Every structure is written in C-alpha cells, then in structure tokens.
Amino acid sequence: PESPPPPYSRLSPNDEQKPLDLSDSTLSYTETEATNSPNVTPGDFSDASTSPDAVKRSHWCNVAYWEHRTRVGRLYTVYEQSVSIFYDLPQGNGFCLGQLNLENRSETVRRTRSKIGYGILLSKEPDGVWAYNRSEHPIFVNSPTLDIPNCRTLIVRKVMPGYSIKVFDYEKSCLLQHMADLDYADGPYDPNSVRISFAKGWGPCYSRQFITSCPCWLEILLSNNR
C-alpha cells in the first residue's frame, strides 16, 4: 500500500530494521502519561492513566535515564502501549528528558542532550518491543535478545534516523531464560533489560567500552507481565 500503517512498514526488505514513516501524524503523537514526567504539574494535561480502567492495568516497563554513571530523575513507569521519550518534541507528551535538571553537567553531556531531539518512540507489540528512532542522529541498542547466544562479545546495534528495530523479542527471551546466565564484563546481567544510548555508541567497535561511558542513555526495565 502507498501509506504503510504506522509506526513502521512491514514491507521493508530488512526484517531487523524498518524505516519509520514520518509523513503521517507521528510527530504530533501524544501520550497520556505526561504527568509521570518530573516537573510537570498534575492538571496541566488530560491524563487518561488516572481513569479506573487504566488503574487496573499493570505497567509493562520502567524507563531510567542516565548521564554517564549518574541516573537523572526518577523511574518513568509506562502503562500505555507506546511512549515517546524525547528532549524536544512539538505537541508531544511522554518522558521529556529536557525537563530533567542536574547541576554541573559536562559540556559533552550538554552537546549530546541537544542531539536527542524527537528521541525515540518505544512501542509494545505482540511480537516484542520496538524502538523507532525519531531523532536526527543514530541510536545504539543492546538487549539479551539481540545478542548472539553463547557469544562472549557484546552486540550493540546502530539504528539510523528514521528506522526502527525490535529491541526485545518475547519468544526468543523465553528460550534464553532456560539457558545459563552469561557472565558479562560490563556489569550485572538482566534478562529483561534493554539499553539505548543517544548519538554515541559503546562496545567492542567503539572507543567507549561500557555504556556508562556514554553521555546520555536509557535503561528499559521490562516487566515480566506479557
């Protein structure tokens, strides 16, 4: 079809990364979790998450924002199927990283924060969790289901602007749960955690060996509830 269904086209020849169609209303995408963002006064938004139906739903992930080794702000809990995580997004509600204050930020962090822009759209779908790069710079992703089984090398995937990637595969995760935990050199291993850095990569192919060396990055803590 001429207009593939948002947020990505399944007609993409690349099954792993799919182009994001920005021609529709994705840039004006709004979230109902706006009041979870720090420094936002309740009542400024119409927050559907406070409705009785929403209260009954359990969250499917928490998002932590880090600058190098410092976590900035509180955990952002996600109840809706999709959430925007951004620095500056016109008409966009969700997890606004630009509102998180921290004293004595380094110039490197300031420059990287300015590159986050529209950020990412994180979406829970039947086959797994997808991240859609809406910024003008690449993002870098690592997760248990993107790694090669029994491989000692950390796998970090680079996702260019306008493309999406399945950052977590539910079916593959279930298979990996039966395998012995791997001893990762860069910290504790969480089988339900996804790490995403903005603009700067890390791992064997980059000068930064550990994600804690990246100026701005996210930790997606997935709930066991599917």
TrEMBL record:
SUPFAM superfamilies: SMAD/FHA domain. InterPro entries: Dwarfin (IPR013790), SMAD-like_dom_sf (IPR017855), SMAD_dom_Dwarfin-type (IPR001132), SMAD_FHA_dom_sf (IPR008984). One of its GO terms (biological process) is regulation of transcription by RNA polymerase II. Residues 60-226 form the MH2 domain. SMART domains: DWB (SM00524). Residues 1-53 are annotated as: Disordered. Transmembrane segments: none annotated. This is SMAD6 protein. One of its GO terms (cellular component) is heteromeric SMAD protein complex. Residues 23-40 have a biased composition (Polar residues). Signal peptide: none annotated. Keywords: Transcription, Transcription regulation. One of its GO terms (molecular function) is transcription regulator inhibitor activity. It comes from the Eukaryota.
